Amino acid sequence: MFRIQPLVSVLLCCFTFWFHISFGYLITCSGIVPMRYRNDKVSITDFGGVGDGKTLNTKAFREAIYRIQHLRRRGGTLLYVPPGVYLTESFNLTSHMTLYLARGAVIKATQDTWTWPLVAPLPSYGRGRERPGGRYMSFIHGDGLRDVVITGENGTIDGQGGIWWNMWRQGNLQFTRPNLVEFMNSRGIIISNVIFKNSPFWNIHPVYCSNVVIRYVTILAPTDSPNTDGIDPDSSSNVCIEDSFISTGDDLVAVKSGWDEYGIAYGRPSSHITIRRVTGSSPFAGIAVGSETSGGVEHVFAENIVIYNSGIGVNIKTNIGRGGFIKNITVSQVFMENVRTGIKITGDTGDHPDNQFNPNALPYVKGVTLKNIWGVKVQKAGSIQGLKNAPFTNICLSKINLHGMTGPRSPPWKCSDVSGAAIEVSPSPCAQLSSPQQSGSCANHF
User: Fold this and answer.
1) Pairing label, strands 135-136, 118-119
2) Residue-range domains of the chain with CATH
3) Among 96, 363, 415, 430, which lies 20 to 30 A Cα-Cα from 154?
4) Which residues are catalytic?
């Protein structure tokens, strides 16, 4: 027995490797961006940093990053943040650097909102996401960078978002709130082993990026904090998100690609997004695509997801005027507990940036596979509602079991303007989803 068992394990590993290679799912985070070792190391205290929670450290962070940018040490430089609370205004990172937070280190955003820099709106949005015009720069920001790492020993980046949430609630915002961390037009990014807390707006936002790895992170915000999405890959490619815990006031992970006519004109899709082993809760969705999908979203693969105390388990959402496409989306191995709606795919979600959107720009949704999903205390099984002039096609459901609050089954599905197939789905899905024998469109998805 002791001789056979290792052989069985090896054979199983080989089969798993072959299976993933054969079906195109072997996308490991370590393969997308290798972790860099930095020979050159400096500490924020070398530049006058003081971790007493009171001293403003903006000058120290900016001088340290200026040094890294201009000395250009071979292999890059690691900026070490020792234990302590380092209050600072927003700052920009530079290429070939690692921001390393020691255990007990906290980088905390100042609450002096009037000092926050403004930046131009994203071209794929045409304006700030909340308000017309520009937007406040993210707390930690990077544009046009290469080879950047944010990591450590589970230190914390704290956005102190409460003051921003109150401004939103009171209608006092002049511009769109800042993200906690945003990378634009960048590649070769790793974010790992850090706690992100109380973001003013979206937490981690890679936009127009490629080769991004986000793993072993914890993202926290109160359930009533507005628009505090966990991770939003936006018009980005080759993004891997894994082994993380997220509990926020909005979608845990939301894949986006621009807003109405601006996203259509910019035309940069989000593609090859892998999400695995993510656990969390949200009053909105666990795994989401949209609703801003005007540049297109394709090749999204999510697996081994745990969602609890949430609004929607899996939510794919778009709208008239979005244009773009959503295709080749696979979500599998999901467990959900105590959610209002298990699965929702809809064409009538989200607002518009202005009145200039084209009502004839209809989204194209095709090839969505949801399989091996188990839910308990699910109030409503699912809703799949396409558009009359743009029905959703090749919607494939298999091995889905969603239990209700008191009985074994939640209420039945609601569907319209959709076609596809379903097998082993309980409660029984809508009539528009025929059996696999009647529809060949999903034959290769089960």
Assistant:
1) antiparallel
2) 41-195 (2.160.20.10), 251-446 (2.160.20.10)
3) 96
4) 250
